[in-house]
Design brief:
about 280 residues; 4-stranded antiparallel β-sheet; globular; about 60% helix; 12 helices; 4 strands; alpha+beta
Length: about 280
């Protein structure tokens, strides 16, 4: 992927306004939120590009057979179309690429992280009327079809392979070292999916200190979600200091210390000390 160039400040402000509005809507649209994340990462993704990605999802949905049957039939139909015919799948190398977390790039490359490939499965299947939802297994996102008693899981990263119960157990054991809990199989909320995608972006950037710009926009989009970890404010403050924005970082640290002081005064004092240190860097 070419080095992504960020959008202009004016474009970024508009994207973030739309992202926050969509996230707070009655029924947030997963594909729209993911594409707005992509536009924040890639300034070349304009309105025509956003529309083209939605049209591609519509086109793929139109290629599915009409209501193929029960949950397993839907899972097989998606595997045959997206995994086998269209070639969507993942490889270990995809974990090293930022574009693996950007929906428009995943649609173009047909490669991505498990969660982004799952978004493709979800959005194509949903448009076709399938009983589909995301399943946030620890360390590996998959898709589910049908109700609890007849649930069928598929792994888009593996080309849509339909999983047995033992397969799911192995995925969870590999990530946690323990067995699967029924709560892990519940449908994932779209906003939780978006937060997990942004967490992946932050993890990618954390391993590349020179890309603190990416870490910063990922944190700032996460903070626009209605529900997010309070500690993200602290992470944003640290990033501002790291990027040389000492006053802005200090202000954020002081604000976070006020929040923390209600539950842990010792931690609040440590954060206030970091704020003082940030201000001292100006001298």
């Amino acid at each position: 992927m070419r080095p992504p160039f960020p959008p202009s400040p004016e474009r970024s402000a508009e994207l973030r306004r739309r992202f926050a509005e969509e996230a707070r809507s009655e029924r947030p649209d997963l594909s729209t939120l993911c594409l707005l994340v992509g536009a924040e990462a890639d300034g070349e993704l304009d309105e025509a590009g956003l529309d083209a990605a939605q049209v591609e999802l519509d086109r793929l949905a139109g290629l599915l057979p009409y209501r193929p049957g029960g949950p397993r039939a839907w899972a097989v139909a998606l595997r045959e179309l997206l995994g086998e015919r269209m070639g969507f799948h993942g490889t270990p190398a995809d974990y090293q690429r930022l574009e693996s977390s950007l929906l428009h790039e995943v649609l173009a490359r047909r490669r991505g992280l498990p969660i982004l490939l799952s978004v493709v499965w979800l959005e194509v299947a949903r448009r076709a009327g399938a009983p589909v939802y995301g399943v946030a297994l620890p360390g590996h996102f998959v898709v589910g079809f049908g109700p609890d008693e007849g649930q069928v899981l598929a792994d888009p990263f593996d080309g849509g392979r339909v999983l047995t119960g033992a397969d799911a157990e192995l995925l969870v054991a590999g990530a946690t070292g323990s067995g699967i809990d029924p709560s892990m199989l519940r449908p994932a909320d779209p906003l939780d999916v978006v937060l997990r995608i942004l967490n992946n972006v932050r993890a990618w950037a954390a391993a590349r200190p020179e890309r603190s710009d990416v870490a910063l926009w990922a944190v700032e989009l996460s903070l626009l979600l209605p529900s997010h970890p309070a500690r993200l404010r602290y992470e944003r403050a640290q990033l501002l200091v790291q990027r040389g924005e000492f006053v802005a970082g200090a202000v954020e640290l002081e604000a976070y210390a006020e929040v923390v002081s209600a539950v842990d005064e010792g931690a609040a004092e440590r954060v206030r000390g970091e704020a003082l240190a940030a201000r001292a860097m100006l001298n």
